[in-house]
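Box 3.1 A note on notation
Throughout this textbook, protein chains are presented in two layers. The first layer is the amino acid sequence; the second is a token string describing backbone geometry. Keep the layers aligned when reading.
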Amino acid sequence: MTGTHKVPLALLRHTESPRLAGLNDEHLHLLTQTDTAFPPILVHRNTMRALDGVCRLHAAMLRGQKTVDAVFFHGPLSGVSPLRSGPTFPTDSH
């Protein structure tokens, strides 16, 4: 994984949450109501798909943001496993 980058929302794939339960509407609503900066989302670099932070991505869109902070994952998507608590990533992702 790499350092944090400002990524235009228009470049990111707007997908469903990789979590088995999907997006949490109540959590999304709470995120849209805060003025606090979000932690970076995790993005698969080759596909520009959000791997973690999909609620934060959707909240940023609803708040009218043009960019979001992101960290890129450079490994294969086959190395990502969605779980109820969030995706897991192999340690040898370089």
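The longest strand covers residues 67-73. The first helix runs from residue 25 to 32.
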